[in-house]
Specification:
Elements: E1 2-4, E2 8-12, E3 18-23, E4 38-44, E5 51-56, E6 60-65, E7 70-75, E8 89-91, E9 94-95, E10 97-103, E11 110-115, E12 119-124, E13 129-133, E14 148-153, E15 160-165, E16 169-174, E17 179-183, E18 199-204, E19 211-217, E20 220-225, E21 230-233, H1 238-241, E22 252-253, E23 260-265, E24 272-276, E25 281-284, E26 289-292, E27 298-304, E28 307-312, E29 317-322, H2 329-343, E30 358-364, E31 367-368
Length: 372
């Protein structure tokens, strides 16, 4: 299993161990390693070997263990960790963050997790869908715009099989092949908080029952049908469909190919990773569709942070695009100086997000177990 957030990545190895790489540029401890600010290598988290699923969000992460329990870490400003606490501070100058994995959600019957932008989702064994965290756009699907720091059931359906989260919205697929959407609206204007255009509960997109995969990002959703065709809808769908700007409310086919299998989208919508039925991977952006030279026999893949990552049958982790966890010398110095200024109570008006280092050709990540 592999998952990418905005600045970091997570991977579960075949032995059930958990690994992370990337950076913590926003100050949120997404790596789960308290003494590490950024790393270009895979670093192991703890010694446990019962991890099965991971979901990397913008500033927090969710992970599922073999015993059906959910663990989380990172920022908890909107209650997205699910431990019943919300807000940026805990008092006494302490930020409301969890710097390493901890069990945060009650129950031991969870089967899937999904982390979005300060929102969290999970499926139970009985097919029910639950959500918690940020909800200003109705993205939790619970029928209100109220944030919640503990899981709340989404609707009454008991046949959910997949859930995907984007910036302001989410989507899911039920066992009958129907696709549902909720949260930030499909309106063509900029999204607004608590807008009447929002969808505060899951709403069926079409009457069709042949949807097999879906991804969600800001103002855009992309989905694959069982017949291998690719579809898009949302405010920015016209970049990929060629349709008119005002045609984003309904799914429109992307191209004419009918051999697609799966899709993953980066949180900012800058690129999308597509898998064909022949096992080849392709990156789709508003400007191009190109094949990616990943090694053969890929078992898991993900997109995020303007990067892609994949795990091969041999247990290797490959990535390309933005080099998560690496910075130029100047950016390293500015980051160090910014931290010292903030500790002294000084503002750092010159501070800025580091410029990304990008490599289009895939490379293999090295793994380092701090216990070895």
């Amino acid at each position: 299993m592999v998952s990418l957030g905005v600045t970091h990545g997570l991977a579960v190895a075949s032995d059930g161990s958990l690994w992370s790489w990337g950076g913590q540029d926003s100050g949120r401890p997404v790596l789960g390693l308290p003494q590490t600010e950024f790393t270009g290598n895979l670093l192991r988290l703890g010694r446990d070997t019962n991890w099965v699923l991971v979901a990397a969000g913008a500033g927090h992460n969710l992970a599922l263990r073999a015993d059906g329990r959910i663990w989380a870490w990172g920022a908890n400003w909107r209650g997205q960790l699910g431990n019943g606490v919300a807000g940026p501070n805990l008092g006494n100058g302490r930020l409301n963050v969890q710097d390493r994995p901890a069990q945060t959600v009650e129950g031991s019957d969870w089967v899937a997790v999904e982390a979005g932008d300060s929102s969290s989702y999970a499926l139970k064994r009985d097919g029910t869908l639950w959500a918690w965290g940020w909800n200003d756009y109705g993205q939790l699907g619970i029928g209100s715009w109220t944030n919640t720091a503990t899981p709340v059931r989404v609707g009454t359906a008991t046949n959910w099989v997949k859930v995907r989260a984007g910036g302001l919205s989410a989507a899911g697929i039920q066992s009958d092949g129907s696709v549902w959407i909720w949260g930030g609206s499909l309106a063509l204007g900029p999204p607004r908080m608590q807008s009447p255009e929002d969808l505060p509960v899951p709403t069926r997109l079409t009457a069709e029952t042949n949807w097999s995969d879906v991804s969600v990002t800001f103002n855009l959703s992309i989905a694959v049908k069982a017949d291998g065709t690719l579809w898009a809808w949302g405010r920015n769908a016209y970049y990929f469909t060629g349709a008119a700007h005002d045609a984003g409310r309904a799914p429109t086919q992307v191209g004419h190919a009918a051999d697609w299998r799966s899709v993953w989208s980066s949180q900012d919508g800058s690129q999308h990773l597509l898998l064909k039925q022949d096992g080849t991977f392709w990156v789709m952006t508003p400007r191009e569709l190109r094949k990616v030279g990943l090694p053969p026999k890929v078992l898991a893949a993900a997109a995020g942070g303007r990067a892609i990552a994949a795990i091969t049958r041999e247990g290797e982790v490959w990535t390309c695009g933005t080099v998560l966890g690496q910075r130029r010398v100047k950016d390293r110095f500015l980051h160090w100086a910014e931290g010292r200024c903030r500790r002294l109570g000084w503002d750092a008006p010159w501070a800025r997000e580091p410029r990304p280092i990008v490599h289009e050709e895939p490379w293999r990540l090295r793994n380092r177990d701090p216990h070895d």
